[in-house]
Amino acid sequence: MIENSQSFNEDFNVNIISLDGILMKKYSFNEKLSRINTSQFASGIYIVETKSGAQTDRTKIMIQN
């Protein structure tokens, strides 16, 4: 489970990207606190890219299913 607790003042998008650069899933949110169920992804390391307006944050995560 990925939980976003960053405070955005507007809608934001979250992209799950493989280390190969392949976009695995794209989500759009309009709430400050959002959760993504990761059970659909194979175990491994992914990049979580969060975009809101001109702000983009990237974090590597490890998913173990």
Your description of this structure?
With 65 residues, this protein is mainly β. 0% of the residues lie in helices and 58% in strands. The protein is built from no helices and six strands. The strands form two sheets. It has a four-stranded antiparallel beta sheet, with no helix packed on it. A two-stranded antiparallel ribbon has the order 1-4. The model has no long low-confidence stretch (mean pLDDT 85).
Topology:
Elements: E1 2-4, E2 12-18, E3 23-29, E4 34-36, E5 44-52, E6 55-63
Antiparallel strand pairs: 1-4, 2-3, 2-5, 5-6
Short key terms for the protein model shown above:
single chain, 65 residues, mainly beta, Immunoglobulin-like, 4-stranded antiparallel beta sheet, globular
Q: Concise description?
A:
This protein is 0% helix and 58% strand.
Class from helix and strand fractions: mainly beta
Mean pLDDT: 85
> How much beta, percentage-wise?
over 45%
Per CATH, the architecture is Sandwich
How many domains make up the coordinates? 1
* Low-pLDDT residue spans: none
Q: Biggest sheet: strands, sense, closure?
A: 4 strands, antiparallel
CATH topology, by name, is Immunoglobulin-like
Q: Helix amount, in percent?
A: under 10%
**What is the N-to-C order of secondary-structure elements (H for helix, E for strand)?**
EEEEEE
Shape: globular
Count of strand segments: 6
CA-CA gap between termini: 10 Å
How would you write the strand order of the largest sheet? 3-2-5-6
How many separate helices?
0
Please tell me how large the radius of gyration is: 11 Å
CATH class: Mainly Beta
